[in-house]
């Protein structure tokens, strides 16, 4: 086999990786596919992490760009045409070979291929598709491939991407048309959402006329939004996510805390990325997808931002004390999932285990319930175990572990004096 | 579905330490095969531990199961059953983690070689995974802590011993090794650095045999290299 190994391969991969890392998507999950003789690789439905970088994020795929030349000038992007940075393009053969060699050493689960737009979207996508086709056909590569759909790509390029990849994605980047207009004038939010719809239609079409020799993007679509570069509220961000999940069947929306890379008057000043906010958005995103919450239960237009101190579920619970305490021995799935500290897995285990006998705090702990949060919101056969009552004014402080039991007792001892004065 | 083992009169849960007779390992393994798949999975994982009395513990587990025909999670209050379920889960997690963390080196003669250490005897399930993933490769997987190595070729599995030192790496090996190390450095976002989170995900005990943590280059050094070339 021809081994391509030029001294500048190292430099090329350096440059292209640095240009690709701000796209946070890295999942390799969603498809379970066996290998066959003469092929290389398989995929696991749960995905697989191969390493973790020093920012703590998982590395599952070789995430890189085909080229970092770009004719767009998006204000937030490191690769915008205005930036004076080293530019390069990797040849499809070269990138396919690196992916193959990385994969057989078990460094990676597959390839995540994105790109700047060189000349025009379609020409660039052709290069990306060449890489993917060399991998699939010449190397018999059967591992995971995630490919970006570049805004403005034509239908035939999108079709081919769907045919050869396990996941395709196009980024909305910012949650409102006006922000995108301002920071990325060459992009149009409505157009991007239309492309997502088109991807679904094309995928259905390909699957129905399938001869079974494609990959058909079986693990669906994802997208990414940058958090904190523009003034949108969490409500605006999550409203778009909820729309994308419910109406376009997206598998994942990624939130990427804005990392200041360019000096621009229209961008916020150089600050630390809003990691806490990003984390809260993911928590809320999980509540929408796995906990049967709807967005208007978490946020409204008049109360548009997630609490910084409490996770969105505790925050909801504190606003809906009348819903609690939940009786563990009788509550249904819906009620259990509302309890802070109980997730889908522990809720399922509770329902299964309580059939054979009474549960106790100890058993709940073994079933995976986070007792220090759940304890204030549940009863077991009518008994309440929390050290403060559910309606106690210091419950929020207690949940933040900011106040000791002693403080609460002393306060309660003299509380009537406050009422008297 | 009864166990062909010496009958125990007492059904006390804590009597396992007082076993008068040793349980027969082959019988236990046969009994495991008769249970439903989810139970088999738990018990087969548990067999990968180094615990001395694991067979006795599994005997008790099976007795509970055969008496009650219940999914064992309902018996989670029993200390042995809890220990078995919990340990099986952590073994399963470690296998999954090592499926990602094993690193192969290409050595002369057309072999891919990986050595690793682990808390449990997981070389079997790991090798199975890699023989499925790389059906065309000749793999040697080596548990250095347990001094056990398996060789796989075309779906055939052999236990091997090393008579001599390993053949040297191929010429390409150091190139891809370096490429991977640099990739690993470059993909990290400096503004988000969180080494603690990294350590949580890759405990130090695994870091010492991982390619990307060997002779760590700092990005500064990488840039210096480039200027020199």
Count of helical regions of chain B: 9
On the 0 to 100 scale, the average pLDDT of chain B is: 83
Give the rounded overall mean pLDDT of chain A. 92
- Main structural class of chain B: alpha+beta
Most strands sheet of chain B: 5 strands, mixed
Radius of gyration of CA atoms of chain B, rounded to a whole number:
23 Å
- Outline of chain B, from the CA principal axes? globular
Largest interchain contact: A-B, 62 and 60 residues
Point out poorly predicted stretches of chain B. 1-18, 217-229
What string gives the helices and strands of chain A in order?
HEEEHEHEHEHHEHEHHHEHHHHEEHHH
User: What is the helix fraction of residues of chain A, given as a range?
Assistant: 40-55%
How many individual helices of chain A? 17
Q: Roughly what fraction of the amino acids of chain B lie in strands?
A: 5-15%
Instruction: Work out the strand percent of chain A.
Output: 5-15%
Report low-confidence residues of chain A grouped into runs of 5 or more. none
- The tally of beta strands of chain A, per DSSP, is 11
The first-to-last residue Cα distance of chain A is: 89 Å
Radius of gyration of chain A: 25 Å
Order of helices and strands of chain B: HHHHEEHEEEHHHH
Give the strand order of the largest sheet of chain B, numbering strands 1, 2, ... along the chain.
1-2-3-4-5
Describe this structure in words.
The complex is a heterodimer of chains A (421) and B (229). With 421 residues, chain A is an alpha/beta fold. In chain A, 40% of the residues lie in helices and 10% in strands. Chain A is built from 17 helices and 11 strands. In chain A, the strands form 3 sheets. Chain A has a 6-stranded parallel sheet with strand order 3-4-5-6-7-8. In chain A, strands 9-10-11 form a 3-stranded mixed sheet, with no helix packed on it. Chain A has a two-stranded antiparallel ribbon with strand order 1-2. In chain A, strand 4, helix 3 and strand 5 form a beta-alpha-beta unit. Chain A is globular. In chain B, helix 5 links the parallel strand 2 and strand 3. The N and C termini of chain B lie far apart (71 Å). In chain B, helix 2 packs across helix 4. The N terminus and C terminus of chain B are likely disordered. Chain B is globular. Helix content of chain B is 46%, strand content 11%. Chain B has 9 helices and 5 strands, in the order ααααββαβββαααα. Chain B has 229 residues and is of the alpha+beta class. Chain B has a 5-stranded mixed sheet, covered by helices on one side. The relative contact order of chain B is 0.08. The chains are: A alpha/beta (421), B alpha+beta (229).
């Amino acid at each position: 086999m021809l081994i391509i190994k030029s001294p500048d391969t190292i430099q090329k991969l350096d440059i292209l990786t640095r240009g690709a890392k701000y796209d946070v998507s890295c999942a390799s999950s969603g498809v379970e596919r066996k290998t066959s003789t003469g092929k290389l690789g398989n995929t696991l439905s749960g995905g697989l992490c191969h390493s973790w970088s020093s920012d703590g994020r998982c590395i599952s795929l070789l995430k890189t760009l085909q080229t970092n030349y770009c004719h767009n000038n998006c204000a937030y992007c490191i690769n915008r045409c205005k930036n004076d940075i080293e530019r390069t393009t990797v040849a499809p053969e070269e990138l396919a070979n690196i992916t193959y060699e990385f994969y057989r050493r078990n460094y990676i689960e597959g390839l995540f291929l994105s790109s700047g737009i060189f000349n025009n979207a379609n020409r660039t996508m052709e290069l990306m598709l060449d890489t993917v086709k060399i991998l699939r056909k010449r190397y018999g590569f059967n591992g995971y491939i995630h490919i970006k759909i570049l805004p403005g790509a034509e239908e035939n390029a999108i079709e081919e991407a769907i045919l050869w990849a396990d996941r395709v994605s196009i980024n909305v980047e910012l949650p409102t048309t006006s922000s995108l207009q301002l920071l990325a004038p060459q992009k149009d939010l409505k157009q991007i959402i239309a492309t997502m719809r088109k991807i679904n239609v094309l995928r259905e079409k390909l699957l129905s006329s399938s001869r079974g020799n494609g990959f058909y993007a079986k693990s669906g679509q994802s997208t990414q939004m940058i958090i904190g570069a523009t003034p949108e509220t969490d409500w605006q961000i999550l409203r778009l996510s909820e729309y994308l999940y419910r109406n376009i069947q997206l598998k994942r929306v990624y939130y990427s805390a804005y990392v200041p890379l360019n000096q621009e008057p229209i961008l916020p000043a150089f600050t630390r990325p809003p990691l806490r906010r990003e984390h809260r958005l993911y928590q809320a995103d999980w509540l929408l997808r796995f906990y049967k919450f709807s967005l208007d239960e978490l946020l409204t237009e008049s109360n548009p931002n997630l609490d910084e101190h409490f996770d969105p579920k505790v925050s909801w619970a504190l606003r809906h004390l009348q819903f609690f305490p939940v009786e563990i021995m009788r509550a249904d799935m819906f009620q259990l999932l509302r309890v802070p500290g109980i997730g889908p897995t522990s809720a399922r285990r509770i329902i299964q285990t309580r059939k054979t006998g009474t549960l106790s705090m100890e058993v709940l702990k073994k079933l995976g319930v986070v007792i220090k949060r759940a304890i204030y919101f549940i009863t077991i056969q009518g008994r309440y175990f929390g050290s403060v009552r559910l309606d106690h004014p210091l419950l929020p402080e207690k949940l933040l572990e900011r106040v000791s039991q002693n403080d609460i007792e002393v306060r309660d001892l003299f509380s009537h004096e406050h009422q008297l004065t | 579905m009864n166990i062909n083992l010496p009958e125990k009169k007492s059904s006390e849960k804590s009597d396992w330490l007082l076993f008068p007779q040793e349980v027969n390992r082959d019988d236990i393994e046969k009994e495991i095969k008769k249970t439903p798949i989810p139970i088999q999975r738990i018990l087969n994982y548990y067999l990968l531990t180094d615990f001395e009395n694991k067979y006795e513990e599994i005997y008790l587990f099976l007795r509970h199961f055969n008496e009650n025909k219940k999914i064992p999670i309902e018996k989670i209050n029993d200390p042995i059953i809890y220990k078995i379920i919990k340990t099986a889960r952590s073994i399963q997690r470690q296998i999954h983690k090592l499926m990602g963390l094993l690193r192969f080196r290409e050595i002369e003669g057309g072999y891919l070689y990986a050595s690793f250490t682990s808390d449990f005897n997981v070389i079997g399930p790991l090798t199975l995974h890699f023989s499925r993933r790389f059906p065309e490769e000749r793999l040697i997987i080596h548990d250095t802590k347990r001094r056990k190595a398996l060789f796989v070729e075309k779906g055939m599995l052999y236990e091997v011993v090393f008579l001599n030192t390993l053949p040297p790496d191929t010429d390409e090996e150091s190139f891809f090794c370096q490429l991977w190390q640099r990739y690993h450095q470059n993909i990290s976002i400096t503004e988000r650095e969180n080494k603690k989170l990294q350590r949580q995900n890759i405990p130090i005990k695994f870091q010492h045999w991982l390619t990307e943590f060997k002779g760590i280059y700092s990005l500064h050094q990488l840039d210096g290299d480039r200027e020199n070339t």
